[in-house]
Amino acid sequence: MDKESTEFKVNQRVVYPSQGVGVINEIVDKKYLGNGELAGKIVKHYRIYLEVSDMVVTVPVTSAEKLGIRAIVTAEAAQKALDSLSIDNGPVTSDWKLRFQQNMELLKKGSVDDIANIVRCLYQRSKVKELPIQERKLYDSAKKLLIDEISFALGKEASLVEAMIHAKLEPLGASVAKKSIQNNFDDEDDDDDFSSDGENSNDSDDSDDADDDSDSDDSSDSNDEDDEDDED
To answer: What is the Cα–Cα distance from 108 to 18, expressed in whole angstroms?
Structure first.
């Protein structure tokens, strides 16, 4: 590998988009086996412990940026994202499948502002009509990601940050609900489960990077310290 320097350091907290907040446990050299462009080369990898799923993923240093792995935001950026939850950006589309696709794209990008946008959008829509199952899951996941990052950035307990998020969302939700009643909103949402093609799009968020993160399966056991390169 030409690039020997690493952006992150051991014990640094980072955000892995769609996975959550993690900590760099160690930076290791791994030798690629088999065929391919990297065969036989030594490549630096981050080993990241993800607290929310209690697993370790191994990511090539050169792929970290492509995967969207980034440092925790500053306290100022976290507060800005928190404050944005109360901003009314206008009506949300009633086509829930389109909403789902748009929000999944934001989830892949993974910035704190993108995650806040998902939470605000789906909370706002939930005040018009109950969210379909897939969107309820997406909302819960995005809110968890937002709570975790803001709590670390502000140095506050997760339960307190969750209360702060609800305090920002509730006035917006009340306003949206009132407008919906006044306008006799014509809802187009289909409450059926997402179609098979939609499910595939949900599952494909990290598929392009599967080869880059191919070691995550063997490292999912956080107690297992043996890597494939040790076998070589």
So the answer is: 6
Whole-angstrom distance, CA of residue 189 vs CA of residue 54: 36
Residue 83 pairs with which residues in a beta bridge?
none
Low-confidence winner among 74-88, 125-139, 164-178 (lowest mean pLDDT): 164-178
Residue 47's DSSP bridge partners are 26, 58
- How many Cβ atoms from other residues are within 10 Å of residue 161's Cβ? 21
Report how many helices (DSSP H) and strands (DSSP E) the chain contains, helices first. 7, 5
Structure tokens given for 76: 């100022």
Closest alpha carbon to 172 in 227, 90, 101, 104? 90
Q: What is the DSSP letter of 33?
A: P
> Is pLDDT above 70 for 221?
no
Cα angle 167, 171, 177; round to 5: 135
**Tokens read off for 38:** 């990297």
Q: Tens digit of pLDDT for each residue in 63-88?
A: 899 999 999 999 999 999 999 999 98
How many Å apart are CA 125 and CA 144, to the nearest integer? 18
In this prediction, residue 89 carries a pLDDT of 81
**Dist CA 73 CA 19 (whole Å):** 16
User: Which H/E stretch holds residue 17?
Assistant: none
Q: Which two tokens stand for residue 211?
A: 């080869």
Is 16 within 8 Å of 72 (Cβ atoms)?
no
The answer to whether the beta carbons of residues 152 and 21 sit under 8 Å apart is: yes
Q: How far apart are CA 29 and CA 155, in angstroms?
A: 33
β-strand partners of 56 = 49
